[in-house]
Amino acid sequence: MRYLPASTLSGLLGDWADGTGPAYRVLSERLRLLIADGRIMPGSRLPSERELTEALGVSRTTVASAYRELRDSGYLISRRGSGSVTALPSKVAPELGRHHAPGIDTDGLYDFTCAAPSAIPGISAAVAAAAAEMPVHLTTPGYHPQGLPVLRAEIAAAYGERGLPTSPDQIIVTAGALAATSIAVRAVTQIGDRVLTESPTHPNSVDAIRRSGCRVVAVPMSPGGWDLPLLEATIRQTAPRAAWLVVDFQNPTGFLMPAADRQRLAAAFARSRTTAIVDETLFELSLDGQEMPPPFASYDPDGVITVGSVSKSFWGGLRIGWMRVPSSLVARVLDARASLDLGAPVLEQLVVADLLRQRATLLPERRAALAERRDALADAVARELPSWNFRLPGGGLSLWCELPEPVGSSLVGVAQRYGALLVAGSRFSPDGGLESFVRLPFTLEVDALREGVARVAESYAALTMAAPGRRSPVMIA
To answer: Are 328 and 135 in contact (CB under 8 A)?
Structure first.
């Protein structure tokens, strides 16, 4: 259980007294929104009534009445000896049921659930070249638990070009980044260990961490990115065995962690002996030509496992990812991998090796196309949904949009009736909340993005004037 000091809570509340109505109700509503949006995580212990009264300079009755309203609405649970702990009245349930295949069984719908673009030009030629190499491999059993040497050499060389010396023996090829995350977590944790993550973050990866038997410790992102003091305090208080982070155009917020913050955070992990598992899947998708910070592992080469993939840069259908593993952990990671699979497909590995050799010529076109789509989506949202707030990310694949009210889950069901598939922000929160947010990927064609936003705007207008609709099950990419 995390304790929220009165001084910290006062800062989160800001100028709450500017609202209209009774002071206790304004305070209660402000606290409710902070909890619903994940700025105060569920399970946090709030300061006592006396402590908050002194911090805010209001009457004890105001705070007591605000807490009572929160208890009555299910956002606060008070127990003798435990204080007042935040909660969600009906925690957003996991999205169960039929998983749709983006772009295949979504005919007639504008699909904003999948943050993955279609294949880059050149895939077919790479497949043909790989097929010509296959006869040599057909005489072998075809199992490569660590990956084909030719692909591991290309991946290692790419890290070296970024200033992170890497041996091919440190590379382990997997069937995508999610598989790499699952293997890495199993290798460095035991059942019941804590794993630190951001909130919001990629939900499938959080699910994989939990299925490994670990407890997720989610740290909220601030409106400006990573809250380093809060991260450091959480690391000290919880001593997580591992951490899973996305520091390059974070999914879904699009933030890029600066070099100084990487160095500071890596030092915090090193002090607590926390193994950082850093997902760099979106590293190649810098859309504004900015210089990228050094790899996170540069600041602690022996304590960081780096996860990579070609699913966003080349094509998700290749299903090839990898890990860059400290030499001391390679054997342990390979042992953990043996219980999950025996290696990635040979043909796809040959294809990816060929594509990596050509990345200097292939990726600029990919970035240019995504930048055009990002700008088109941003223009459409600003025009059709002017009350929604977002920041234009310098890379990645999506806009993280904040709505004026916490209606994200309701909007999902209404939008489908208007022809658009959405994912509510709550799906990206490990602990619930974030109901005021929606992720909008810019992976559709420009015209489809514009029409899709128009459908979302129609559904949002209908929602704000009518009862919320039902949710629809979706799979997150």
So the answer is: no
